[in-house]
């Protein structure tokens, strides 16, 4: 197994390029199953989750060719409609094949994803929506068996905004007969890109990015050509890297409109964030100020930035409260940050952080994707050496993060455990 080693204390300077968004690339890759023909997707990040998605597409019968962050996917022949447990358990986003397979083939057999480090993460809202479109759903040996002659449009109101649920239903409704209305839909930028991509394939979708999305079903969709939007969470992670080290970094392709909630909290913490022609320039203060955050669905403060922000608050002047409202167990990074000297108390869904001027490097263990990033960020600012183990979690969502940080002056490298 590999680990990442960091000798902290260096203020980062320079420019860093953000890659394509993992959480947009994944639904787009599966959307290609909706069309009989060859799709081309570019700016796909080189991540473990993307490799897993590629494996799943091939299991289903698609031909996949990848080169230089571009994918050509020929989904003319779907030879299987089953997403196996061995694969789904490694990447829960595999459940996003449900909508496309049901819409294209009238049948899907997808393993239930099971639990995950950050929470139970059920897919009941996906299934309830697909049933409302006329699918017959049954659970059998840990698999969802879904069948439908032809999906029929319906009015679906989500009990709570769900990114994956909105994505599955968008892809299913695109080929359903008649109109579908999704109420209380997720509004993330990745949803907007998926809807735009589906429309470029011939779908008729309006309202993506708002809580109410209307879809007029069509009979056929054409293959997709598109470029994945920049990864706002990778961008936010590098913004915090600049802030936490008191550096000055231009984060290329960081889009202000996708990061408003984070930007306003960084400014409250005394971090300078300026929009430039090709990105956001972040200048960290000598020491950040404590600010409270409460995660929520887009456009609120993203849960995927909570762990990273907690690393920043660990060094802040004052006491901050971080409330996690989206997932029930997303504080796994707390005990690892405490090993580095952070003063954090968990109180239900909140963490109280008493900022400390100095944290010290230590051997720590990654538990999930964004917790890993949080430990790297703390290591960049802490004194001495931090070693982050189990970085396979990190490689799911960050492409060459240690190389990008080293190019900004960080003393960081990867080595065998
Ligand atoms: C997506 O997960 C992202 N993953 C997550 O990013 C992100 O944290 C999450 O959205 C929230 O923004 C991808 O896009 C691949 P949800 P998703 O359905 O779709 C509950 C990362 O770090 N819920 O919006 O699974 C659920 O348990 C990852 O990149 C139900 O109860 O999230 C959670 O509490 C982590 N029933 C809340 O809704 C359902 O049927 C939000 O989940 C569906 C969801």
Protein described:
- This protein is of the alpha/beta class.
- It has two domains: 2-19 and 230-416, UDP-n-acetylglucosamine1-carboxyvinyl-transferase, Chain (Alpha-beta prism); 22-227, UDP-n-acetylglucosamine1-carboxyvinyl-transferase, Chain (Alpha-beta prism).
- Helices cover 30% and strands 26% of the residues.
- The chain contains 13 helices and 24 strands.
- It has helices at 22-31, 48-59, 85-88, 98-105, 124-132, 163-173, 189-200, 232-245, 260-268, 306-314, 333-339, 369-381, 401-406; strands spanning 2-7, 13-17, 38-42, 63-67, 70-74, 82-83, 107-111, 136-140, 143-147, 155-157, 179-183, 204-206, 212-216, 225-227, 248-252, 272-276, 279-283, 293-294, 319-323, 343-347, 350-354, 363-365, 385-389, 411-416.
- It has a four-stranded mixed β-sheet.
- Helix 1 runs parallel beside helix 7 and helix 8 (232-245) packs parallel to helix 12.
- The longest helix is centred in the middle third of the chain and has 14 residues, at 232-245.
- The N and C termini lie close together (5 Å).
- The relative contact order is 0.16.
- Ligand EPZ is lined by residues 22-23, 26, 93, 119-126, 160, 162-165, 186, 303-304, 326-327, 369-370, 397.
């Amino acid at each position: 197994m590999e680990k990442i080693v960091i000798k902290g204390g260096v203020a980062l300077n320079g420019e860093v390029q953000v890659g394509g968004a993992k959480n947009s690339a994944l639904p787009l890759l599966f959307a290609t199953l909706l069309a009989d023909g060859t799709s081309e997707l570019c700016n796909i990040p080189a991540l473990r989750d993307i490799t897993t998605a590629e494996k799943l597409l091939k299991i289903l019968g698609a031909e996949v060719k990848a080169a230089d962050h571009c994918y050509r996917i020929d989904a003319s022949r779907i030879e299987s409609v089953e997403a196996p447990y061995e694969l789904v358990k490694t990447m829960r986003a595999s459940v996003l094949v449900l909508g496309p397979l049901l819409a294209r083939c009238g049948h899907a057999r997808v393993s239930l994803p099971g639990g995950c480090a950050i929470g139970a993460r059920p897919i009941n809202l996906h299934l309830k929506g697909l049933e409302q479109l006329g699918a017959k759903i049954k659970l059998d040996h840990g698999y969802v068996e879904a069948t439908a002659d032809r999906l029929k449009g319906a009015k679906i109101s989500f009990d709570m905004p769900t990114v994956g649920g909105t994505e599955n239903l968008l892809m299913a409704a695109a080929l359903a007969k008649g109109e579908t209305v999704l109420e209380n839909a997720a509004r993330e930028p990745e949803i907007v890109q998926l809807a735009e991509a589906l429309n470029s394939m011939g779908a008729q979708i309006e309202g993506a990015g708002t809580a109410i999305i209307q879809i007029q079903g069509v009979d056929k969709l054409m293959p997709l050509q598109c470029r994945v939007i920049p990864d706002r969470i990778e961008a936010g992670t590098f913004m915090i890297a600049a802030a936490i080290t008191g550096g000055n970094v231009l984060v290329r392709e960081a889009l202000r409109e996708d990061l408003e909630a984070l930007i306003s909290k960084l400014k409250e913490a005394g971090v300078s964030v300026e929009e430039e022609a090709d990105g956001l320039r972040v200048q960290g203060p000598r020491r950040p100020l404590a600010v409270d955050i409460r995660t929520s669905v887009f456009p609120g403060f993203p849960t995927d930035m909570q762990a990273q922000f907690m690393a920043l608050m660990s060094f802040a002047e004052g006491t901050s409260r971080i409330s996690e409202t989206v997932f029930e167990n997303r504080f796994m990074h707390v005990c690892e940050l405490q090993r580095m000297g952070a003063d954090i108390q968990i109180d239900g869904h909140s963490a109280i952080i008493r900022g400390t001027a100095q944290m010290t490097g230590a051997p720590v263990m990654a538990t999930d994707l964004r917790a890993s990033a949080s430990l790297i960020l703390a290591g960049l600012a802490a004194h001495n050496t931090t070693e982050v183990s189990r970085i396979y979690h990190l490689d799911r969502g960050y492409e060459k993060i240690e190389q990008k940080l080293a190019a900004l002056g960080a003393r960081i490298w990867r080595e065998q455990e």
